[in-house]
Amino acid sequence: MEFPSKLIENAVEELAKLPGVGKKTALRLALHLLKNESEDTFLLAESLVKMRTEVKHCKQCHNISDTEVCGICSNPLRDRSLLCVVSDIRDVIAIENTAQYKGLYHVLGGVISPLEGVGPSDLHIDSLLERLPNSEVREVLMAISPTMEGDTTAFYLTRKLRDHQNIKITTIARGVPVGGELEYTDEITLGRSIVERTTYGRA
């Protein structure tokens, strides 16, 4: 692809690094930004820089946040007896969009995947186990995508949680298709899975 300007070429190269954005789409975006009011482009650039430099991770649940403790963890109206374990921040957003869940979260930061070199020590599992003693948590809901890696992660966590006899372990109902990702599940199906959660089998 030939470019009339090296600056446009550089912009297209960077935009094309975004997921789902090819060279042609990147070129359209670059030309749109060039055609737009310069203030709009500067606002976009400033918001991206601020997002990258100022967004934090909640020190309690590892969700993204503008403050050290996210709005969900600090909300006194949330049910502190219920803790939902998810693999990714996008899963928190998906579940919150159902408006069916009122508890707290714990974001693992991924799933156990030996093929990709991801083990338990690479996830926020230790901080999860540290949260439970002396807490109000009475139920841990495993809301992890039902893939092979997701099921492996849930099984590992269930074994780790055995010592906490006063905590019930549940999983989202299998209304979510096996092999599917939570972020792509429609809100009605995901909401029903939260409401109709079932007890997680103990090994």
Give the biggest beta sheet: 5 strands, mixed
Query: What portion of residues belong to β-strands?
Result: 5-15%
Helix share bin: 25-40%
Choose one word for the global shape.
elongated
Low-confidence stretches: none
* Rg calc: 21 Å
- State the order of secondary-structure elements, H for helix, E for strand: HHHEEEHEHEHEHE
Q: Span from first to last CA?
A: 57 Å
Total beta strand runs: 7
In order across it, which strands form the biggest sheet?
Answer: 4-3-5-6-7
- The assigned structural class equals alpha/beta
Number of helices: 7
Average pLDDT score: 90
Protein model, in words:
This protein has 203 residues and is an alpha/beta fold. It contains seven helices and seven strands. The protein has helices at 6-15, 23-35, 38-54, 89-96, 125-131, 148-160, 187-195, and strands spanning 56-57, 64-65, 79-86, 103-107, 139-142, 168-171, 198-199. A five-stranded mixed sheet has the order 4-3-5-6-7. Helix 4 (89-96) links the parallel strand 3 (79-86) and strand 4. Helix 1 (6-15) crosses helix 2 (23-35). The longest helix has 17 residues, at 38-54.
List keywords for this structure.
two-stranded antiparallel sheet, 203 residues, alpha/beta, single chain, 7 helices
Structure summary:
The protein has 203 residues and is α/β, with parallel strands linked by helices. It is built from seven helices and seven strands; from the N terminus they run H-H-H-E-E-E-H-E-H-E-H-E-H-E. Helix 1 (6-15) crosses helix 2 (23-35).
Give the secondary structure arrangement, pairings included.
Elements: H1 6-15, H2 23-35, H3 38-54, E1 56-57, E2 64-65, E3 79-86, H4 89-96, E4 103-107, H5 125-131, E5 139-142, H6 148-160, E6 168-171, H7 187-195, E7 198-199
Parallel strand pairs: 3-4, 3-5, 5-6
Antiparallel strand pairs: 1-2, 6-7
